UniProtKB/TrEMBL annotation:
Domain Amidohydrolase-related: 69-430
An example Gene Ontology biological process: guanine catabolic process
Function: Catalyzes the hydrolytic deamination of guanine, producing xanthine and ammonia.
Pfam families: Amidohydro_1
Pathway: Purine metabolism; guanine degradation; xanthine from guanine: step 1/1
Catalyzed reactions: guanine + H2O + H(+) = xanthine + NH4(+)
Gene Ontology CC annotation, any one: cytosol
Gene3D superfamilies registered for this protein in UniProt: Metal-dependent hydrolases, Urease, subunit C, domain 1
Any one Gene Ontology molecular-function term assigned to this protein's record: guanine deaminase activity
Protein name (database record): Guanine deaminase
Similarity remark: Belongs to the metallo-dependent hydrolases superfamily. ATZ/TRZ family.
Record keyword RNA-binding present: no
Amino acid sequence: MTHTIAYRAAILDSLGDPAELGLENSYRYFEDGMMVVENGRISALGHAPEIMKGLKSGTKIHHYEDALITPGFIDTHIHYPQTGMIASYGDQLLDWLENYTFPAEQKFADPAHAEQVSEIFLNELMRNGTTTALVFGTVHPQSVDAFFSSAEKRNLRMIAGKVLMDRNAPATLTDTPESGYRDSKALIERWHGKGRLHYAVTPRFAPTSSPEQLATAGQLLREYDGLYMHTHLSENRNEIEWVKALFPEQNGYLDVYDHHNLLGQRSVFAHGVHLCDEECHRLAETDSAIAFCPTSNLFLGSGLFNLPQAEQHKIKVGLGTDVGAGTSFSMLQTINEAYKVMQLQGKKLHPFKSFYLATLGGARALQLEQQVGTLEPGSEADFVVLDYNATPLMSYRMQQAKSLEERLFVLMTLGDDRAVKATFAMGETVYNRD
Ligand SMILES: [Zn+2]
């Protein structure tokens, strides 16, 4: 039996990167729109009066007044084990790992703890309208089992992996090239391609993996189709110097990964705050992606991501919250901070570009644009209902707003989890605020 529901509201999705298409051609908007969802997939999208003519009689219609339906947000870099240490005071990257991250991650040896945090983490993503994320586990395989089990129950499209880390970390948090390879392989066999789940080979970053371990990461990518590679790159200046000292034979940070065949169309590098043109060229040439993590880059004092440089080189870019170094699960708040990162560099970030980055741009960075990231008929029905009147201030400010782009900008600047009315995955409600 087919299961059909129609949703009526203002509806917006992205058609492409404004840097390529121009602002006007980069989006699709229906002021009085209707989207039809059939068996978990979008089957029709358009102006409500037209779509309604084609609806089978008796089709249930959900009408959201003064709300905006968009694709679910896509977070291209986040650490679920760091949920409990978000907002930790005082350090930049390397001390922050030592003082906060490693102690927090040690607790994930306990499967019950991993299960509990997975649930809290996914509740937060749903509350914030994020339906797909590329997620770090810890070194413990049980951390990834717990995460995937929780994601599977909710039928979410999620990507995650076990951290590979065989040096420069506490003994309780390290694996070896052999055990890291073996444990990753077992997780891939168990989860990769199961339902809507994908596996990411996940070396933490170059300083915590030996060349032998990075070689096993490259080997895994060759052995299985469709695997992701997820790591950090050029976040902090001291980190970059450390990588140079650890890998003197390589020509810079990115080259360490390149040397081990870790670049490619499913490779996502978090941060990339301090990249030279040669590195940008190489990322583009290999179709690798960058996760731009503004709240994290500001919070850890790492630096300002140069989005125009990435655009010039045509590098795929998505947005990441990077919780727990990031300070919010909200992609709206992440956009708000991305705007300020551009301002500090004398650049503007248009709301249509931000919207692209948080939806279709993220989907492209993850090679998932056929499945999610837009509301194109045929796509999986992962979407969010946003409330223009989430707070008294938003409501008052919206009364002064004259255009879609102005309303969108206010939503992105003042909005957060409170602006998410409902979140849907494969057409099912996974969060309902009211
Ligand atoms: Zn990170």
